[in-house]
Design brief:
By secondary structure, the protein is α/β, with parallel strands linked by helices. Helix content is about 30%, strand content about 30%. It has six helices and 13 strands. It is globular, with a radius of gyration of 18 Å.
Length: about 210
Amino acid sequence: MGSLHVLEHPLIQHKVSILRDKNTGVKEFREIVGEIAALMCYEATRNLPTKEIEIETPIAPARVKVLAGKKMAIVPILRAGLGMVDTMIALIPSAKIGHIGLYRDPQTHEPVKYYCKMPPDISERQVFVVDPMLATGGSASDAISFIKEYGCKSITLMDIIAAPEGIERVRHDHPDVDIFVAAVDEKLNEHAYIVPGLGDAGDRIFGTK
């Protein structure tokens, strides 16, 4: 059974405050998104299994701990999720990266994949799905569903800011998925923007608005 983890570390909360400020420029916004992603990755990987091995230090033999079990993959939801990838890869350089892009058909309202590329061994990996915002939860839920079609069993969702509606949707559709967020905001407005939120994360990361 998956759990909701709200990360209240002071460094994370301080950096989220910078993201929310409408006066934060593109360069700083992009950097802070990466910094928060790294701090969240540290927390989301806290319970990874380890095993002991023996090595030689310059001084003497030593028994040390290394990661054991499944390898990892990071799957950003395009396009804003790309802003969280680089700093996570710096922490777990052996992770592979998949990409998934979705849009909703205006007539049927069903999710349509416009791009999806996964590592060939994705089903054997622990998958971290990343996107700065969890608003309605529709895209996240659909992305997780598509990833499960590859046979993935171990999936974690990481979002910087979430609305209660989005959390409820993902937990309803995917009760087996752990969710890590830095902040849970008040609500969605009539345009499905998170309130108070931070605006459009993709536009602010890439400077397109």
